[in-house]
Predict the structure of UDP-glucose 4-epimerase.
Amino acid sequence: MLLDDGHAVIGVDNMNDYYDVRLKQYRLERLEDRDNFEFRRLDVESTGCIDRLYAEFEFETVLNLAARAGVRYSMVNPTVYMMTNGMGTLNLLEAMKKYGGKKFVLASTSSLYAGLPMPFLETLPVNTPISPYAASKKSAEAMAYTYQHLYGIDSTILRYFTVYGPADRPDMAIHRFIQWIDKGVPIKLYGDGSQSRDFTYVDDIAKGTIAAMKPLGHQVINLGGGNNPIELKAVITKIEQLLGKKAVIEHLPMHKADMISTWADIKKAQSLLDWQPVVSLNDGLELCVTWYRENLPWSSQIQLGTAN
């Protein structure tokens, strides 16, 4: 979307193997031939890499979408989560302080709202993170506030709610459900399927993120579907209908780090960003299944990684 609007974009990724790298390469190949796009393989954890990047380019806006994502794996390897999500954010903010830049946008998470009343308002005290992932994102949010206060770096924090879409992370439920149902592999369902999420389609998230590039001062803004949360068992039923196949379900105990439900209050996004999600879950799931079918047999062979 940024390239379509005529912006010059520098994409950065360390291409780590947390999940199937071929999927990351697939996404990158759809950008590499675009005018005004360049890619650099580097790690935001490295101050040397960031310094070299700033020596090469002058940035007006930094969209920090770089993160170690996934709740459950953060319990296995919490150090890498703190390094990327905490130190990586600090390195980017330090570079903006040193080299300049007008705007910092941080992708944060609905996971911070664990245990709080729904729908989740940005003013709620997010002081009860129940996973190292959520705690690392909390540290990134705090750092963005500090650099706004000390150095005037205009920073907007966006709390994303269960982003999904074609070619999305294979550790996320929708990607896994589609592949498992299609292949007749039992779905690993934690709990009874009544846990629910405020699913948000990737195009809507992208539009909200771009809208947040304008000067806003320090703001925390939810980007979510904005409707009643959808139960996972309803998502499975819809995917069954789209694939014309029945799911085999293996029930497992609820995970201690999982949230029962998420639901965004999006009035602030509507007011400050003039943003409203437009893609329904039914339409979004149909787009995901269409992508999966159009990319067979490769899409059925994607390694799914550790469950989120």
Q: What stands out?
A: The chain has ten helices and twelve strands. The chain has one domain: 9-301. The longest strand covers residues 103-109. The chain has a mean pLDDT of 94.
